[in-house]
Design goal:
Ribosomal Protein L9, domain 1; 3 helices; alpha+beta; four-stranded mixed β-sheet; three-stranded antiparallel β-sheet; 148 residues
Length: 148
Amino acid sequence: MKVILLSDLRHSGRRGQVVEVKPGYARNFLLPQGLALEATPGNLKFFEHQKKKIEARHETERRSASDIAARIAGVRLALRKRAMESGALYGSVTAGEVVEALRAKGVEVDRRQIDLAGGIKTLGDHLVRIDLHSDVVAELAVTVEAEE
């Protein structure tokens, strides 16, 4: 089934793009959630007129994300957490803590952009992936040290 995406979807495509998806995925998820429209001739014609605006906004967002990625590349975070003798942390470093540490360095990112599957649970150096835009990904160096 062909649909027009109304928002960027990580595995399906970008906003305004016409994609082929399985009918069940479209009927049960994309259409009810308002993430896509059925690709009828009327909807396609409407989105052709909107395409230039969408592409201009997408390019502006990409440039902004690239600027943030360049600022993140020069940042190295050092976080202090309580840890056991074995090097395992009591708890874990969460995306929210990474956002707060970045905010203190003058870099604003959303917590949902940070890809920390289960959090950081050990002492040492870690690379954290930050999905700033569908085309821009930054990696942040985070060092977790034990509290005294």
